[in-house]
Amino acid sequence: MAERHPDEKGYDLEERKREAALGANYKWIALSNTTLGVLMATIDSSILIISLPAIFNGLGVNPLTTGNTVLLLWLIMGYVIMSSIVVVTIGRLSDMFGRVRLYNIGFAIFAVGSTMLYVVSYTLTGTTAVLMLILFRLVQGFGGGFLFANATAILVDAFPQNQRGTAMGINQIAAIVGGVLGLIIGGILASIDWHLIFLISVPVGVIGALWSYLALREIATIKKDQKIDVLGNVTFAIALSAILLSMTYALVPYGTNGIGWSSPYVIAGLIAGFAMIAAFIFIELKSEDPMFDLRLFKIRAFAAGMLSLFLAGIARGGLQFMLIIWLQGIWLPLHGVSFEQTPLQAGLDMIPLFLGFLVMGPVAGHLSDRYGARLFSTLGMLINVIGFVLLAALPANFNYVTFGLIIFGLGMGQGMFAAPNTVSVMNSVPPEKRGSTSGMRATFFNMSFMFSIIIFFTLLTIGFGAALPDALYSGLVSQGVPASTASSISMISPTSTLFAALLGYNPMKVLLPENVTQHLPESNLTTLTGSHFFPSLISQPFIDGMHIVMAIAALLALVAAIASALRGKQN
């Protein structure tokens, strides 16, 4: 990069000329529009997780029957899978054809996908409706990929170097808060009318698309002489698709196993995916105009920032999923909240996590402009290590004040990490690489979310499944269920049990044979099919699984803190 000579306010001549040409307010226009786009894109990545019970009930589909579990997974993960696959390619194309141009296209695609989701929710029912919702979630995720890939680069272009931390603090906190806010909004809308879950994105998508088209200006230097790395794009898309799809289907029971990691299709898909990753790396190192410029990893701040981003994302992403299962499937029913109200209440109970992000994100971004990223990003991850350890120490039926304080601290730690780390990564690369760098950063961010859910759910299932049979057997026998029937029911898939907990569904109503329920005392039958029995039964196995999950999350956060500390004194 060319040497820069900032004045006493931190501006250099190039930045003053740019601000004079654009107007002093342009950077704030860019910040507000890109923050809106990223916020909406991340809200939609999580809004369905908490509102699935209302959606499936509204469509008349039982997500726990054979085959429908796959639909459930696709509805949750299809959006992130699609945006993860396309985001690097879009970032690279943005450097060639214009970041604002592709950002505008993405907002338009996002608006179309959002509109069609709302139309489908009102016009179709049954599995056909679920399939169409999945299709348009993929369209929405495709548009979201354009937003993820370009928002950061547009901001870095618009703001002078000494204000990028503040801008990123606001924008990146929107990216992380959006995931939490999606849970809260999903819970609130599900309790009013589940169709509104899809409607909320429509006006934001349409207004945001029009606003970005009219207000944003292309200020980056476009290098039109670059070539499209076709082979790199194809191999990366195939590799990432194979890995993410295989890992998704690994959550579906296979044969007598509660999870599908032993499935030959999953194993073959992972082998093929990682083989394509190896081919992709070889291709990129030989390419004159690589899609994914691996040479950037020679930059210390870039490499450390991307590694810590990925590890922090794995530690954070699955946490929200685990907490929702905990709240919606166990804690709230044990406290007398009806299954119909658990989505709303679970969303509200996650507010401290949101507030932690909100409080610390902009502050850490602003301070990193003056003191550098290393202190704040490292300290943020160390706070998360402590938070994960404290969560692991909680009982299933915890005191909410304690729980709220812990997740507030986790939110502050993650807010402290996000913006400084992003600014450090973006400032470390040449200006002409910002589009592809933004795409690479967004890919690592999205992939970490996917990996987190899959890894954490697998670990939870392993710990949960080990203790579940004995808990189910003893609990059923204590209510007068014959030992043979209790033994058969205790073999239920741990994955199905966890999904039942997530959806606020007591499977005892369908698992108990009619010839058994007819001979049970009325009081025992009421207990078995009530709202307390199933959550009480699975609470200790769930905590056993959570101990494993939180231990791994703490370890990942610790390694992320070490990587962050190694980025260099000035970054």
Tell me, briefly, the overall form.
globular
Classify the fold: give the CATH topology of the largest domain: Growth Hormone, Chain: A
Q: Which structural class best describes the helix and strand composition?
A: mainly alpha
Total number of domains = 3
Estimate the strand proportion: under 5%
- List SSEs in N-to-C order: HHHHHHHHHHHHHHHHHHHHHH
Radius of gyration: 24 Å
Instruction: Provide the residue-averaged pLDDT.
Output: 83
Low-confidence stretches: none
CATH architecture of the largest domain, by name, is Up-down Bundle
The CATH homologous superfamily of the largest domain is called: MFS general substrate transporter like domains
Number of helical segments with 4 or more residues: 22
Describe this structure in words.
By secondary structure, this protein is mostly helical. The protein folds into three domains: 26-228 and 289-464 and 546-565, MFS general substrate transporter like domains (Growth Hormone, Chain: A), CATH 1.20.1250.20; 229-288; 465-545, no CATH class. The protein is built from 22 helices and no strands. It has helices at residues 13-22, 26-59, 68-97, 99-123, 126-158, 164-192, 196-199, 201-215, 230-249, 264-286, 300-334, 342-349, 351-371, 374-392, 400-427, 434-478, 483-489, 494-502, 508-511, 514-517, 522-529, 533-565. Helix 2 (26-59) runs antiparallel to helix 5 (126-158), helix 11 packs antiparallel against helix 22 (533-565) and helix 13 (351-371) runs parallel beside helix 15. It is globular, with a radius of gyration of 24 Å. The model has no long low-confidence stretch (mean pLDDT 83).
